[in-house]
Amino acid sequence: MIYLNGKFMPIEEAFIPVLDRGFIFGDGVYEVIPVYSRKPFRLAEHLIRLQHSLDGIRLKNPCSNDEWRNILEQIIANNDGEDQYLYLHITRGVAKRDHAFPANVSPTVFIMSNPLPQPPEELLKTGASAITANDNRWIRCDVKAISLLPNVLLRQLAVDRHALETILIRNQFLTEGAASNIFIVKDKVLLAPPKSNLMLPGITYDVVLELAAANQIPHEIREISETETRMADEILLTSSTKEIMPITLLDNHPVGDGKPGELFRQLHALYQEYKATHMRGQVV
Ligand code: PDD
To answer: What's in the keyword line of the UniProt record (predicted)?
Structure first.
């Protein structure tokens, strides 16, 4: 069951007009929210980021946070699986094609839930491979915009080369992945690129940094050069759907000793523990 503009219905019955500005211009924003044991994970943080994205495209939030919580609860209750991921999509609505904003148009709101796949055990054991590419996206990557054509093309480069992700480099510095955030480890220090307009402020990224801080894991938030990325002892990938994964091959060269490293193991275990606390309802 999905949600479309105030109504719950089976996805087969959900249609939007071809003049929707999401379809015509990619004029909209979205969120992806993981659900564990039927409880949305870090929902408050996702709703704050949604507001930031809406502000970034000058679109009024169509719902209050209580209304979002209520709709999402119903979607979760009416879909199978203890662990799900919610996809929430808002566009500027349906209007005659004109680049400028239409007057008095209601936004289109679409929400669906899908089963949340567990990151494959094998990849957690061996690590995944990634490639690098030039970050040729716009310079408002902090807005979670539905217009994802550059990300789509960049991710496909990885798939073409049988890799999991494309790691993006802008002006010789690491930004993020095509659909993930990227950390590196050098000399036992976890390094994270600082939040800016050049990357999406990941919710998982925040969790990882909070866990590092709470567990005395040495970490620094600073610009990371392409060379440092290539010379890293470990590379870690984070996202709501992939959680935390080790990258052990970069452009066909082993990362460090080519195996998932100590900091990955530590942070992965801490992340699972944090999720368990969330599932017991001890964090909201
Ligand atoms: N993508 N950077 C980009 C460009 C992303 O698309 C994502 C997530 C992230 C990680 O953010 P978070 O930890 O909040 O999931 C970073 C989602 C999962 C997607 O588009 O499907």
So the answer is: Pyridoxal phosphate
Rounded-to-integer distance, Cα 257 and Cα 120, Å:
21
Instruction: Say whether 144 is catalytic.
Output: yes
Indicate whether residue 164 lines ligand 1 (CB < 6 A): no
The minimum-distance atom of ligand 1 relative to the CA of 206 is 13
Q: How many whole angstroms separate alpha carbon 87 and alpha carbon 72?
A: 10
Q: Using an 8 Å Cβ cutoff, are 144 and 31 in contact?
A: yes
All structural domains of the chain, each given as residue ranges with its CATH number in brackets, are 2-115 (3.30.470.10), 121-279 (3.20.10.10)
User: Ligand 1 center to residue 202 CA distance, Å?
Assistant: 6
List pLDDT tens digits, range 242-273. Answer: 999 999 999 999 999 999 999 999 999 999 99
Closest atom of ligand 1 to 204 CA is 13
CA-proximal residue: ligand 1, atom 6 (nearest): 179
Enclosing H/E stretch for 25:
helix 21-25
pTM: 0.97
How many angstroms from the chain centroid is the CA of residue 220?
Answer: 21
